[in-house]
Amino acid sequence: MPIPLQKLFTYRITEAEADFIKIGTRVAVPFGKSKIYTAIVYEMHLEEPKAYEAKEIYQILDESPIVTAIQLKQWQWIASYYMCSLGDVLRAALPKAFLLESETLVLKNPEFEEEATLTDEEFLIWEALEHQPKLKIQDIGKILDRKGVLSVVHSLLSKEAIEVKEEIYEQYKPKYVKYVQLHKNYQTEESLHTLLDDLSRAPKQREIMLCFFQLKHGSDEPVALQDLIKKSNTTSGIVQALVKKEVFELLQVREDRVSFDTDIRPIHELNEPQLKALAQIKAVFEQKEVCLLHGVTSSGKTEIYSHLISQTLEQGKQVLYLLPEIALTTHIINRLQQFYGDKISVFHSRYSVDERVEVWNNLVSQSDKAQIVLGARSSVLLPFSNLGLVIVDEEHETSFKQFEPSPRYHARDTAIMLGYLHGANVLLGSATPSVETFYNAKQSKYGYVKLETRYGNVQLPEIELVDIKEKHRKKRMTGHFSDRLLGLMEEALSDKEQVILFQNRRGFAPVVECSTCGVAPQCPNCDVSLTFHKFNNELRCHYCGHQQALPKTCPACENPTLDTKGFGTEQIELELKELFPEAKVARMDLDTTRGKYGYQKLLRSFHDHEIDILVGTQMLTKGLDFKNVSLVGVLNADNLLNFPDFRAHERTYQLMVQVSGRAGRDQKRGKVAIQSFNPYHQILQQVTIHDYEAMYQDQMNERHQFSYPPLIRLVRIVLKHKDFIKVDTAANWMGKSLVNSFGDQVLGPTSPSIGRIRNKYIKSILIKLPTNISLKQSKDQIQRIKDSFMAIPDFRAVQVIVDVDCY
Ligand code: ADP
Ligand code: ZN
Prior knowledge:
Layout lengths: L14 H6 L5 E6 L3 E6 L18 E2 L8 H13 L4 H8 L11 E4 L11 H12 L2 E3 H8 L5 H9 L3 E3 L11 E7 L6 H10 L4 H14 L6 E2 H7 L4 H9 L3 E7 L17 H16 L2 E6 L5 H14 L3 E5 L7 H11 L3 E4 L5 H12 L7 E4 L11 E7 L17 H12 L2 E6 L4 H8 L4 E5 L10 E6 H6 L3 E2 L2 E2 H12 L3 E5 L8 E4 L16 E3 L4 E3 L6 E3 L12 E4 L3 H11 L5 E4 L9 H10 L5 E4 L12 E6 L3 H4 L6 H13 L10 E6 L5 H7 L3 H15 L5 E10 L2 H19 L3 E5 L5 E2 L2 E11 L4 H16 L8 E6 L3
Parallel strand pairs: 10-15, 10-16, 11-13, 11-14, 12-13, 14-15, 17-29, 20-27, 20-28, 26-27, 28-29
Antiparallel strand pairs: 1-2, 1-3, 4-5, 4-6, 7-8, 7-9, 18-19, 21-25, 22-23, 23-24, 30-33, 30-34, 31-33, 32-33
Helix pairs in contact: 2-3, 2-15, 8-9, 11-12, 22-23, 25-26
This protein binds adenosine-5'-diphosphate and zinc ion.
């Protein structure tokens, strides 16, 4: 059942139904007083439940399973490992359209026109939607005057007459690219000659035509509008004029669907070091399931993946390619689509319902279209039937872990389990592996292959640390820039090269503070200071989204002395505009990329060198591959290092190395300047000499000393309630019970640094589980404590979240 309960429920079926129903199919079942749910058949048995009378099912919804046997095993593993319900996993895995329930809202598809194909009952519903914009499944039951209506709704869905409403996600809208092709009036040589003659009186248009033919190069493919505009040095207005004249036609093609048949290219030949790495990986797979590919940035890991993918496809098996963030990695999708065209399905939780259902069905039916699935975290939950290879690219990325809502799974670890269930190979790739993965490789649990040279023997960038404490003392700072960084930037810009600047925070000044009384305006719902956004003069909470205008006076002392402090990407952008008035500056962070195509637009302009300096946050690190960037500047490495988390140092190393990797990816050696108040910090020293091993050793020493993963397992229990006293009492009770079982391995309860979010107070307890004691036993014990906790009437309203591997 798609509900957060630990149990499976038993329903009564007839013998005839038993013959028909298969495990993994959907059935509509009654639940509670009046609810109807879509449930998945988990098993069929002959034992009557003792505690309740088994109800009859309403309806069988599928003829054949939509969930595979391996998936059910995987879900069971996730539920037990991450201490959540099977229902949570089911909800996370199945596209919403598969899970109609009494509360689902049904809407009309305004574009549907084939009313003639509807059955009488379907037509009744369709007609009802003419009068009422939304119907609940329950309402449909009333209209048809019967209960089992889900199959009618499903049929309407499959005819695309209706849509079901999904509110949780903002839908991901893929980018469209405009292409130009000749209007069909000009298919013959003769008509073309006449055209060119006619155009002799319009030289600009004639030139565009000539450029068009040059770009086309005799092929049948259309030409990208951008390329044409650039090549002929014109504006889209003039091209539009030719469209009006019916000389050109414009095509809109979805960027992730751009695959003209002739476009498929053979994969690249590997160079010597890559060939060696590939051979080593294959040797590892003879003996082990999991292999770590530790390859420096730009060593060509993606090319190696392609070879493994091709070999897996030759064996007739499926490939899952996991990426940290689909929206940020369209360039990888494009690259792979060049090699594999239609065989790739891209899966994204923010895709529309239809697209997700399409991928799901393609996989279940083992269609050719779903031989390679490229997706972020949630694609690890798809119904693979014959998986041969899993690639986890950028395996160290934090976005593989789901924090909210349950199931709080880690996609990399879940992928390893998935590989195990299918007997498939799993390749983890990174230039900066997570400490836990490297540890597993050292322990020989995973195989290990290293690739140390960049493709084309491009050198790793030269990294320089700039001591800004010293610079401040000597008055050599202009705003947030040292004279050294400014010098390097001038050099790069005068050589017509591009610059990337990395700043960890977004917003103009994270904190606004009153210079008279020292008070900073707080979010009314959360215990955090509001962040100042200069462009609209607004204060915002980055936790709950609360926003308000910047007050003219301090809310505490009422003096007009609210002062902006600290700095973020927006401030840097402003400073740059003053320092380099000639340069084109842009900013990339959550605020500027929120819009539909924000991110892609920025990337394209940067790629086309319409931007000289790009300032951005973490987003910049996601494997962008730009040829013309010669300098990367990090404005302040300290706020990363000082972040209160046991992984702060590891993360700083990863981030610094990944941003550095954006510099000098072509022939010239790139340059990186990292500004810090603390340039002698071990981690920064290790970054400059690319010494991953030393970083790893230091981190492991600390984790030994303070007992942190991967040497122990970390489980976090979080309690939330509106009433502070209540959550405090509850947390103390929970803490004591845990101490009884786990002794001094329990830390807390403590209030996290932000003690209240969305009006709820938070308490958190950490449990360190030693790896030498059965994990299963420990978790069972935690579960028992949680169950007794929930049985206490006073605590029932307290929200309890259990997060396994909560880092
Ligand atoms: P990584 O994923 O390790 O950062 P990429 O696979 O993105 O590296 O490779 C970096 C660049 O080098 C890409 O532009 C890629 O096309 C190119 N490249 C790498 N290996 C080859 C190869 N064997 N043949 C042609 N180009 C390659
Ligand atoms: Zn808030």
